[in-house]
Amino acid sequence: MTLLRFIRGIAGEGPPGRDRALAGRLMRVMFGCYIVVAVGLTALQMFVAYRAASQRLQDDVAALQRTFSPGIEDAMWRYNAEVLRGILTGMQEIPAVVGVEVRDEAGRRIQATGSFTDESGKVRHFGSGDERHATRSFGTPFSRTFPVVHTDENGRLYPIGSWTVHSDDSIAIAQVKNTLYVIVINSAIKSLMLWFIFYLVIRSMVGRPLGQIRDYLARIDADTLAAPPLTIEAGGRNELHALAGALNTMRDRLRRSFEENAALMRDLREMNATLQDRIAERTRDLEALAHTDLLTGLFNRRKLDEALAEAAEAAGSSGAPLSLILGDVDNFKSVNDRHGHKVGDQVLVAFAALLRDAVRPADLLGRWGGEEFMLLCPGSDLVAATAVAERLRQRVETTSLPEVGPRTCSFGVATLDPGESTDSLVARADAALYRCKRNGRNRVEASPGPRPEAMERGAA
Fold first, then answer.
1. Pair type for strands 409-415 and 444-446
2. Is 371 a catalytic residue?
3. Which of 113, 138, 289, 401 gives a 20 to 30 Å CA spacing to 163?
4. pTM summary value
5. Of residues 371, 397, 403, 445, which has the active-site annotation?
6. What averages of pLDDT result for each successive group of 10 residues across the chain (460 residues)?
7. How far apart are CA 61 and CA 67, in angstroms?
């Protein structure tokens, strides 16, 4: 049932008034993307047109030098103000020119006409012999200054001033304004036509088939899976027809799944009893694994700690002796260094098997850590435990281990005294083992009784 509700959600099941929600959303998204692209392309087109018009304006202003520089030079050389004013008035009629000014060699303004921005940033207007301030129009002003140089009959040059043409890029904007009108009208007509086409196509090819899928899924539940298959009434073959086929296939699979669920539940009930037995067996295996060293198969340190505490408590209650033997392979590091850790592991496994075969049934053997092994000897005093350790030492010495041949082993022995703690017992056995290493290895050392302070800590 959850799967059926999920499928209905994907198909857009909802109130009848929203049967075209997806189609309308598609239209808005597609049309919105088109508007964004159209606006972007229009802006790009206008920018390109403006740059072209602006460049033409710059070229037209630059070309004025070739046309008017000779006349301006002649009028300034002859001090003919009327001719100069006539030239400037004629230049003012050129569309690319918004203002012209002429300055002498000292930089003083001689003649000016039109509008331009002076050095202080103020916009000034010159015409009909007057000068007045004006506000700047839309656009960015720019100017080009050309030198005025007179050349006499001997070829000598006399700088006599300069003239400046002022223009404004609003002229270029005005030139592309008509182009903008055409582009906007064209885009508006195309947008209306595309909206109409989108509406017809998406409504017929998406909205109506999705409505049929929604209505079909609304009629299906667990009790009506045998309903007639869904048929899409739309021209052509597209993904929605494939979706209808997939829904029909899913409906058939759901019907078969419901039939198989009953048989599956019966099988699960039968398996449950068997599973409980397997869990109990697995629990026992895990408990054994928690107390076993994975490499050697002996008891691990956790089990040895528990067994030592239990044996010490039993010895304290019964008064029977309890001895502990710690042993390890001499110079084991050289085995790893020379042959590698894999051979070292093989040596430890063989050493553990050798000890396992040699210990008494009542003793408890385990791996204490690394190459160290511990043997608990309940009921054995220090003499008996030392004899056991010596017998193990001799057996190790005469046994060939894998890859490395015969090796030697050292053992430290200690017996639990009344009131002594297990930590003190282990420490004394470890100290005895250390004395073996210091005194030449391949030997057995027995620990004397604990020091008074160790006894006090054990009693506490």
1. parallel
2. yes
3. 138
4. 0.41
5. 371
6. 45 44 69 79 79 78 82 82 84 83 85 76 66 52 85 84 82 72 79 74 68 70 66 65 73 74 77 75 73 86 91 91 93 88 89 88 89 92 94 90 88 93 93 93 87 45
7. 10
